[in-house]
């Protein structure tokens, strides 16, 4: 370096100048630098200089993590502050200049320390606001924001502890830093959410290439605390060159794009488009309507009969929720149940369904009739479900044996002991538990052996499949398995006489579907039972 | 935790297309220098399609080296085959060998391996070496 050639000049300067290497070790310091910082022997780490407060050293360390140029003012001795101007790192070397009383930029009213995230050395929300203000002041017409959210980060914290989680965040920050340029502002918004604010004009292709690189880089394994960790990242992008018009909108728009990226299956990126805003607005309105539906009594239960194939009599009804909205009309459970699960409304809706179904079943004149109620895996996250069932039985006076909960295979994906414990607790109340939509889940069949399920409900997709040797082999297989395990089998979605008779021949226990009856409102059940004629009698 | 010795074995796709000898030579030189400083020993193997590397050293040093590799554009599809604490180093000196089946490449780069004095201290080292060599062999472009 030419600077080193004129060492004599450097020595004479009243400004303190030093060169540090990649490990922040001072490899050269001029006399002024050494004197101001009380350094007697080299080499020495810059962060090992004597400072009155540990916090000052932390600040210096954080600042040095940034390889770009920056400035930092800290208290070097009681009542005496010194400003460090730190040059950008090049070839594992950077220059550090110290000075006292040097002017700081007027507009930086916030202390730098308050704008830094202590863990990663990135900026925080305050820095984001500050940089946005600066961009606005300069009338910037081109800027872009990338919001990066880690997938599966929570599992790392949960399984390996917060220490490992923090270490991982530091490595993530390093990888992000390695992919970005000096004038990009790197922000940790909190948790596992990072933001890159890019001030200069960028073509959309360039931003997408950066996002793709980050997704790739953050998807590669990490080594933390002796463990190999694999996470992933989803990225939302918003840019003034694209559909965002105001600097202030960038972060919100990038967040909307992130939501879209996550919904498209994670580990990818999405660029904000204006229609996302309308979509988000619609989603919010739908969510608000759903949250009000219970209170406004817009839900009702309809009941679809289940008949015994051998005895040709009605054995019970499956309760099916209906949402009648004044302007939306009838909303399908396929649309609102996933949202209810996502926003946590499923707990109160589920409670209402069980309670209502028990109440209404009490009005049926045949006391042998059972009522089957669908329960979402989201209702099994804690022990509440046990109390909900117990309370519904106590409140209605329904005999426990008349209640059957229908759960899906999805509940067993985690093979959690807690879930098995809850199932046993409900079973001990005397309530039956059936497997719904059998054959559509991805769970291993092992769970069938671990619990005395009352019934296997064969999914309608098998019943309604085009007749073929393969389809009938599948159904026969399920029926044989049920019979061997001592579990009853119910075929769902029977629509034709052919389907019914086929199942009858193969020994299926009970039937449900339009061929027998469509779901009906509670007040039609009495008439239905009066007029019920077995399907075979109809056919004959 | 950070002072415990660990062994890392990983493979990655090698995106080097031109001036292979020069680039690999450069990687070797920089790695040797970095690793000496970080108390890391191990072995690097490559063919026209793949890198395979064994690193042994303190946790923090392995982590730092691995992060540098991850951010290197020339690596992709990084797969960790092993990451565990070790009782004793089996690659006592940093080494590098060319492993491949193409005779021409062997002639061109074989000396890099010979120059580095590639050797193992124990049978463990041989096993790792053999597994990596088998993987590299499979990955060799036709």
How would you describe this protein?
Chain A is 39% helix and 24% strand. Chain A is of the alpha/beta class and 540 residues long. In chain A, the strands form 4 sheets. Chain A has an 8-stranded mixed beta barrel. In chain A, strands 3-2-1-6-5-4 form a 6-stranded antiparallel beta sheet. Chain A has a 5-stranded mixed beta sheet with strand order 8-9-7-12-13, sandwiched between helices. In chain A, a hairpin with a 2-residue loop joins β4 and β5. The radius of gyration of chain A is 33 Å and the shape is elongated. Chain B is of the alpha+beta class and 142 residues long. Chain B has a single domain, classed as Alpha-Beta Plaits (2-Layer Sandwich), CATH 3.30.70.100. Chain B has 4 helices and 5 strands, in the order βαββαββαα. In chain B, a hairpin with a 3-residue loop joins β2 and β3. Classes of the chains: A alpha/beta (540), B alpha+beta (142).
What structural keywords apply?
heterodimer, A: 540 residues, Beta-Lactamase, Alpha-Beta Plaits, TIM Barrel, 3 domains, B: 142 residues, alpha+beta, 4 helices
CATH class of chain B: Alpha Beta
From the 3D structure, determine the CATH topology of the largest domain in chain A: TIM Barrel
CATH architecture of the largest domain in chain A: Alpha-Beta Barrel
User: Total number of β-strand segments of chain A?
Assistant: 23
**Chain pair sharing the greatest interface:** A-B, 15 and 19 residues
> What is the percent of helical residues of chain A?
25-40%
Q: Briefly note the CATH topology name of chain B.
A: Alpha-Beta Plaits
